[in-house]
Amino acid sequence: MSAVQRFDFDLAIIGSGGGAFAAAIRATNLGKSVLMVERSTIGGTCVNTGCVPSKALLAAAETRHVALDAGSRFPGIASGAGAVDMSALIGGKRALVEGMRSEKYADLIEDYGWELRQGTAAFAGTPEDPALDIVSAGGGQESVSAAHYLVATGSEPWAPPVPGLQDTGYLTSTTAMELEEVPESLLVVGGGFVALEQAQLFARLGSKVTMLVRSRLASSEEPEVSLALMSVFTDEGIRVIRRATLASVATDESTGGVTAVADVAGSRHEFRAARLLMATGRRPVTDGLNLDTVGVKIGDRGEILVQNTLASTNPRVWAAGDVTGHREFVYVASAHGALAVDNAFNDAGRKVDYRHLPRVAFTSPAMAAVGLTDKEANGAGVSCECRVLPLEYVPRALVNRDTRGFIKLVAENETGKILGLTAVGKEAGDLAAAGVYILEAGMTVEQVANLWSPYLTMAEGIKIAAQSYTTDISRLSCCAT
Description:
CATH superfamily of the largest domain: FAD/NAD(P)-binding domain
Strand content: 15-25%
Helix content: 25-40%
Radius of gyration: 24 Å
Structural class: alpha/beta
Largest sheet: 7 strands, mixed
Number of helices: 13
Number of domains: 3
Shape: globular
Strand order of the largest sheet: 5-4-3-2-1-6-16
Number of strands: 21
């Protein structure tokens, strides 16, 4: 088919986040004409309400925590930090977000030359001849056609249907980033990555934080992760209530706060706090897109059902990022966007491969992992051997005077091939990045144990963990590993 003769655009994209921009950049580099439609603020979740603002605030909270804790870690260093000016902190966060949104998103549209429509898009036409109806922010309407369409509308915070919840003005990970003052107390519901980051963020800013967790912290990761983070959170005054299910919520008329009732390990308990933060997951944004009109099927949670090529049930409609229901990381979305364009226009046949996808929670110390957990390896029928290296055996951690955490390796028994790496510690995300290359190369424990590793880096801990398979690491010299 000839896109130039038959269609208004080669590619029409709904959304303007990381997946949408990666797709638009790849398509324009291929010489394709691109239209992007955004109904809200350009840049999507990551730069506006997700990664950038949350990590900026986490960095600020860690700075305050270090200032308060320095004296206990380093003799001769005075400790101290005043109350948080939340309004100023949020103002700085907004300035950062606006700058990045301009430089990394809005300015790129002009640089690459694709078209942007501010408005709401919905599919029209038929499965054989799909089109987009666009209602602009000013009320104007138009219909456009494209050779291919990409849905990159992302996801939004989701909360379960708990009685009374909708009347309490609860916070989400989005609205919490706009608070103008630090809540005196905060009840966080959830135990996943977002809940972990938000709980520690507000505790370090001065809130008294309680977490209600259905099973354990970071329940999809190694059990050692939960134990390590539980210890850290306890030390920082964060109360974690496990095996807890929220039953009802009500506004406390006397204080203006919230009263939550939860079932905890078979009995009912009441919890009070100034604010309630629901960190119970996200759901794909597909309402109002009229996907059924063009034969695009969605799943039970509203996600667009895609093949591993990211093609939907309509061969001209593709999806990228959170809207697919796949792992909710911005680097997944951006990889999706480029891959979908290659498959749509070059018939590349590329497939998404999550085997070595790293995952990071930006707590402090951080949690990061790549590859299989011990449980996943055994569930796949792989006979494996694991080693857990406490950070007290990593020289960098000793120098930092922060040995909270560990490095765990999962290796195949027969070959010694490393199948997974999990770490809790400073710079754990960088350890997981190194783990990506180790797993992708199919390296063995023996290979890693005998490779170069710079002394006094956290990455050296991976080598020491590999050495622990054959060596009593407690008998190693700290400078002769």
